[in-house]
Amino acid sequence: MKIEPYKIGIYFVLIVLSVIWLFPLVSMLTMVVKSPDEFNTLSFWELPELKRIPANIAFNFGHAWGKSKLGGQMLNSLIFALTAGIGSAFIASIGGYALVHLRVRGAQSWFIGIFIGNIFPFQMFLIPLYLFLNILGLFDTRLGMAVVYVGICVPFALFVYRNYAFTLPAELFDAARVDGASKWGAYLRIFLPMSIPAFAVIFCFQFIWTWNDLLFGLVLTERFRPIMAGLERLQGARGGVPPTVLISGAVMAAIPTVLILLSLQKFFIRGFTLTTEK
Amino acid sequence: MKTSIKRGGSFLFLLPAAIFVLLAELVPVIYTTYLGFMEWNFIQPPKWVGLANYLKVFSTPELLNALKNTAYWVAGTLVFAVGFPLLIAALLTRVKGKVIFKTIFFIPSTLSPTIAAIFWRRVLSSQQGALYPILEAIGLTGQPLLTIPQINTFVMIGIWTWQYFGLNLILFLVGLETIPKEPVEAAMIDGAGPVQIFYRIILPLLRPIMLLVVANAVINSIRMFDIPWIVIQGGPGRVSETLAISLYRESFLLFRMGLGSAIAVVLSIITLLASYRYLAAMGGGKKKER
Question: 10 Å Cβ neighbour count for B126?
């Protein structure tokens, strides 16, 4: 068997890149297995005694979860991400249904009017949302945060749902109408069950986006900080936690999105390309 | 008559979406634009100052610097997080082990930018950093990369590349897999070289994916906040600030809401100009009407 020389070159490039790509991840794992003291006394790449590793991991994660309050902040983020994911997918499902399968007057104008929310950078909403939440007494509340996240997610969700709704044949809904089904009946019995893939794609996208959000979490709340804003405070000058605890907290915060994205990689990419199809 | 009543009620299904977008996005857009013409520190009532805030955006050295850094972020993202993965995707189609490499490169894309920045800050730290002992062993010591003005923006673009690369790589691989073999083979028979085939045949066929990847890359890099903020708060001083960080600092740390709003408007206009074609393609959508 003969390997062509250019292929050796390609493999060389790929392997060098892989090493660079894995380097930070591996180095972070060496931190998670050390106690804060060991991290200070050993050099970076020295490992502690094997039998101490389970206790060290437990200490680091326990400290990050409890004393550093990341556990509660992950719970906040879970609430926000579930609300934003389910809420925006549901709102988009009824909207997409109406745009495509109910004969709404001026469907295109409705769509543009809602989709336009997607074209501005989030920073454009930040200051007014801060003021509105203050006026409504929702600043620094879980409800206020959840409502904002749903609102930010709706335009993109509607875009994906509308695209998907076009792939469902109109005849289905006409037939249901002839059989005497109401608009809600046709939605619940035909449209919603048939559009589960779109619902799931939107849910995953918006769950991940909300989980990963830093900016809104920094500005709109103090008491109910979501996880990324919590990590930001922890790693700042006033954070004052041992580096091994900070890194363990970051690893912990990454688990949900890593699991979702690695297990649903194909599905997720399909969702992404769904946005290019015409 | 009856059908028109039925038809008229359908808009109720769109109402929740419209209300959320109106309150969370459309009214804020108008309000931010209005505040951009005001001077306001939360304490005194807002005062009309005309275009003064916009003049400040384009004359204050810190903000001009933020504009420049934002331009670096966009250009750097296009070269390293779009062009580079396209090249690697093209290489990957020619060798075995695609799945393994693809997975390795994709792992960082499953992390948030915040987490990527926290990791790399430790990797590049001069006190107990992962890279430092290695650099020391080969005799390369000096100021930590993340604290050197001008250089650190590019190091952070590197961090962003590490995080963003895998997603675009996979999207390009999907695009490359869907390209039909016939035109490529025909061109090879006609004696076209690999570079020619890439530019003349593969690139045009990749256009839809390319549009998606480039538009998202531009939109995400123009509003870059997380990485430079987590790594060094736009510092040292304000030298690595992006527009998004300037906005946050002016509005919520220095309480210059008017100036912050003007920065938001500038950011929006740049985004709209840069992604106009993509948005038109998205918004136009289906021509098929019932």
Answer: 16
Under a CB-based contact definition with an 8 Å cutoff, are residues A199 and A230 in contact? no
Q: Using a CB–CB cutoff of 8 Å, tell me whether B226 touches chain A.
A: yes
Distance from CA of A53 to the nearest CA of B (A): 19
Interface contact B28, partner A, CB < 8 A: yes
Mapped onto helix, strand or coil, the DSSP state of residue B47 is strand
CB contact under 8 A, B133 and A17: no
Q: Is the peptide bond before B228 cis (omega within 30 degrees of 0)?
A: no
Give residue-wise pLDDT tens across range A145-172: 999 999 999 999 999 899 889 888 888 8
Domain membership of residue A152 as a residue range: 70-274
Q: Do A247 and B118 touch (CB under 8 A)?
A: yes
**Is the predicted pLDDT of residue B288 greater than 50, yes or no?**
no
| CATH architecture assignment, domain B74-241 | Orthogonal Bundle (1.10)
CA distance A51 to chain B (A): 23
User: Residue A206 and residue A88: Cα distance in Å, rounded?
Assistant: 8
Kindly provide the b/e burial profile for residues A95-132, where b requires at least 16 CB atoms within 10 angstroms of the residue's own CB. bbbbbbbbebeebeebbebbbbbbbbbbbbbbbbbbbb
* Whole-angstrom Cα Rg for chain B: 24
- Token pair 């007494």: residue: A137
Residues A52 and A75 in one domain: no
What are the backbone dihedrals phi and psi of residue B48, each rounded to the nearest 5 degrees, phi first? -65, 125
Of B221, B226, B240, nearest to B62 by C-alpha is B240
ipTM score for this prediction: 0.91
Question: How many Cα neighbours within 13 Å face the side chain of B259?
Answer: 22
CATH number at residue A131: 1.10.3720.10
B23 vs A: CB within 8 A: yes
Give pTM, 2 decimals. Answer: 0.91
- One domain for residues A49 and A87: no
* Crossing angle of helices A265-274 and A243-263, rounded to 10°: 70
A-to-B residue pairs, Cβ atoms closer than 8 angstroms = 291
Q: Cα B163 from chain centroid?
A: 12
